[in-house]
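Sample pair:
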Amino acid sequence: MKKLTALCLALCLVGSAVPFVDVGELPAITANATDQSGDCGDNGDNVKWNFNDKTGTLVISGNGAMGDWVYGYPSYAGYSVDVSQDVYTIIIKDGVTHIGETAFSGFSNVTSISIPESVESIGSGAFSGCSTLSSITIPDSVKSIGSSAFANCTNLQNIDLPSGITYIEDYTFGGCRFLNSISIPDGVTFIGMSAFSSSGLNEVAIPDSVTILGEEAFAYCDKLVSVTLPDNGLRIRNRAFSNSGLTSITIPASITDTGAVTFDHCENLESVMILDGVKTIGDGAFEYCTSLISVTIPKSVTSIGYQAFNECPKLQDVFIFSTDCEFDSCGITISGNPTIHGYPNSTAQTYAENCGLEFIPISNYLTGDLNGDGNLTVTDVIEFNQKLHSRQALPKNCDMNGDNIVNVIDLALLKRALLNK
């Protein structure tokens, strides 16, 4: 027992003689490996992924198509780990031909995505909810982009659409609040439902190739002030521009039907030019356009739908050049107390009289006589100029050259007529 006690004491004395060495902070030990990888091809291992958790880089490589994940994105870091919030850069290598459905949906911290020329298609919802992404380049090799592919990419500001696409599918750019401009390529024939709804677009030109504009395609684009519609017989679905920021609109002659509630709740809309050739103004087409002051309806129109101009409190003048246009109910089709201008013995006169509205025969007007006093004067020139520059609708009798369009040429002709008087 004495020997054991002595041995313990000796060991303690030896230990106390060893100097303390500071080795610094030990590195953290993590369960995840630095590099993780797996298969994500439509045939299994034809396409692979590799994720580096130090750099936040996800690389997709291989040959052929990625798989589609209709009910969620692939589990890139193993089935028990979600890396969607850890990825900052996505690199898709040359050889990959298809980006899978919802492949990167909800990767909200991604700031950079590289797509090679080998990619031919982007699946539905592929990048939806990538809310930090501000810019992406899509190569011209891409011929199709699926629905909701970039939906709710709320910080997306710049994107160039490839020249070969023919469809812009439903919700493709819906909710992209900072996307303020986009060029729609010639060759696109269809713009789908809510394709750009609630986006930040401020102007858009729809090319002649587009034949169908989907329901709510540009609805709730409150910054959208200018739209150019093609004169190609475009079919406009319901609510295409509802609740947008438009201040003026010209509807070409070949668009025979405006569609229902197409421009409803466009509260900044002041000027509407409906060209001769349009046949139907749909139900609720301009309902709640609270800034609309005047509107000219050409002789080609045969029907003004239910609530077409309902709740337009500033509407003062409605010029109707159709003699047999059909109207719906008083106080609903055209609400408020505007003056109706039309031909004697026309349905416009009957409507005005039945609804207790003032009626002024158009035949009493001289060409260019804006104020209807029966004379061409400087006052008409001044009023013409003011309305033209403020983009207010001008009556048909301002069409000095008879081309069914009232513009600066007609203003010049009015000035000449006054000088030659």
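The chain is about 10% helix and 20% strand.
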